[in-house]
Each structure stands twice: as C-alpha cells, then as structure tokens.
Amino acid sequence: MAPDVSVQSRIGMSALRPRRAGVPPRLLMYSHDSFGLGHLRRCRSIAQNLVQTFPDLEVLILSGLPIIASYDFDERVRYKLVPGIIKLSNGDYKALDAADIREAIEARSRMILETAQEFQPDLFLIDKEPLGIRGEVTETLMYLKERGVPVVLGVRDVMDDPIAFAAEWQRKLAVPALEDYFSEIWVYGLERIYRPLQGLPLPPAVEQRIVYTSYLWRQEEITATADPLPIDQPFLLVTPGGGGDGEGLVDWVLSAYEHAPDLMRALIVCGPFMHAESRQQIEARAARLPHVEVLTFDPDMQRLMIAATAIVAMGGYNTFCEILSFDRPSLIVPRTRPRLEQFIRAREAARQGLLQMLAHDEDHPDPQQMIDALKALPQQPRPSAVVIPGLLDGHQAIAHRFARLTGLPLETAARAASA
Length: 419
What we know:
Blueprint: H1 7-11, E1 26-31, H2 38-53, E2 58-63, E3 77-81, E4 85-87, E5 93-95, H3 101-119, E6 123-127, H4 138-146, E7 151-156, H5 162-171, H6 174-181, E8 184-188, H7 204-207, E9 210-212, E10 236-239, H8 247-259, E11 266-269, H9 276-287, E12 292-295, H10 301-307, E13 310-313, H11 317-326, E14 330-332, H12 341-351, E15 356-357, H13 367-376, H14 394-406, H15 410-418
Parallel strand pairs: 1-2, 1-6, 2-3, 6-7, 7-8, 8-9, 10-11, 10-13, 11-12, 13-14, 14-15
Antiparallel strand pairs: 4-5
C-alpha cells in the first residue's frame, strides 16, 4: 500500500465535509456494467463487507444490469437500475432499451445526478471508469466536488496492456479527471504482482493518491435453502464468467472430453451472457458425454467453487479472487481480445506460482494439450502453497480507507480487520 498521506492533501480541500448529526453514513457506488458480471460482482462484494464493518452504513449501487436482482444483498445494501448499455466486440456501445445511445447516456447521466442529490452520500465510489461511459458521471462529480464529498476510483489489479491502456485513458480524458475530482484511487491488487496504472502520465499529486488495497477475499455464503449439487463429486468446474466471450474456452474443454472420455467429471456453467445459439450447441455436445454437465447460470457460484476439485476459467478478476479465497487448483485460459487484462493477470499469477496458465490458440486449439492440462490439474498445488503476505486483505484496507475519508471512527474498521 502507498505511504499514508493526510486526507486533506489527498482531497485537495481545506477540510472534510462535517458529518451530518443523526444521519447514517451513506455510500453511493457506480458500476457501469457494460460487459459481463465483473463490475457488478466486485461492487457487491465491497458493499456487503462494508455494511458488515460499519453497523449503520447504508449503500446504494447504481447498475445497468437487471440480473442484479438475482443476487442476495444485505438489507442495508440497495440498488437502483439505470438504462442498460452493452459494449460490443468492436468497442462501441449499444443501448438496450433506447433507439439512440446518446438518449440512453443522457438518461443515465440525469438519473445518476438525481440519485446523488437525493441520496446525499458521504462517499462516492466509481468502478473503473473515472467519468463513466462517455462522461455520464461528470455532472455528478462536479456536484459532489462543490459539496466537499470525497470521490474514489476503484480499479482492478490489471487494466490492459500499458500502451493500449494509456491511449484509451488519454482519449477519455481520464487523467485530468483523476486530478480534478478524485480523493483516492484504490487498486484492488498488490503492487508486487502488478501495477495497472504504470505508463500513465500521472502528476505527482495523483500518484500520491494511489492505494493498493490487495485482493478481495470472498467468504463462503451459506444459504439454508441451497439446492443439491448439480453433479456428483469429484468434478472440475469450468466457468467462463459471464459467458459473453467464453465459447472458445468451453469448446476447447469439450473437445478434450470428446477425445478422452475418462477425464474427471466436469460441470460447465456457461454464464448468463453467452449467446443462446452457442449455449445450445454446447448443451447438445455435452449431452453425448457421460461425464459432462452444463448449467446456464448459477448466482451461487461460490458454492460450486468450494465443492469443485479444481477450476478451469478464463481468469477474470472476481474468479481469480475466488480461486485464491477458496484455495482451489486452477487452470486459467485467458482471453487476449479485445484487451490483454486476463492474459497479464494469469501470466503474473503463474509467475508467483498461484495457478497454471494455458495459452489458447483460437484458430487451432489442440485437444491433447487440454487433455494433458486437465489430467494434471487435480494434483496441482493449491494457491496457499505460496505465501504472499497480505494477499487477500483488500476488504480490511478498503474499510480503513473508507473510515478515514468519511470521518467515521477508525476503531470500527480496526475491529473488523481483526475479527
């Protein structure tokens, strides 16, 4: 974690906004949700842990994903849906319920500002996009700055190839926004593993605001009405995350089982965003394989991860945190398009000995290469075989920073960190 700097110098204001007497502390979170489940799941994890730490805290999550209703939340964590937008494979955005993307952006921008005005947060936490999609959060940032409300940007451990990432953020005017509006930048990873903002032309004042929180530990969520496992143990869990770009991984795994039916049983969870035609083809192929089961989606993926002998995944941020938290041997087959985020994460984690990475030749996948990797996977060392101090301390660090920025008693966060 970066050296501690006074809150006043981080924010660039004369003083923190005074706490409102008799009003519970409030956190507003923005998740732009343009592709997959990653941003939403990360925001949910942070919100759930913060309300466990601060007994009076109220959290409101802004999201464009209706599937948010499938997840359980603490009673003090609420969500508000804004018009949905998806990111296409060519990088453009498409509105889900509006004819024109500009119309959707204007509606989202208006709703975000009105929500901030009504909710009156003590801190605004933005996930990944400093100004939101096409600048939709800018007016809200200006409004909160005028009122002395601290704003934090949270970014994952890896963003993209440094050169491509710097060009993207230059185009989006992200660096000036960091300087003008943000009190801190929370990197949900460890500096010794990767520095996601390297290569950016950050002013020294912004560099001082970077805090490496470490990775976000995921605890097992036990539900009394949990259904029986959809497959007998032992089994390998194959998960392409949200599934929007996971057909290649699943195809490669299925080809391995088609050539070697004696492999350990496998449960494939396609993800809610996999194309229906692709999912139907996968289900048809799996139906001919006695040791392969397929699900479309399970909101309780943690239960499946804990039950699995090992995991085969693409290597998104949340999946990686769960692999570490539940200490499962893992084989990561990262995507390399449209960005190198998953590849870089898997490469650096493999260098640390936390998992194994298998490069995917999308044009000519070799079934035997996958067969060999799957056979070796159950005997692979668990992540805990490698000792990295503070690897999963992210939630404690976030609680500590939240307390400092909002003026809440630090001892509250300290008690949570030692629990």
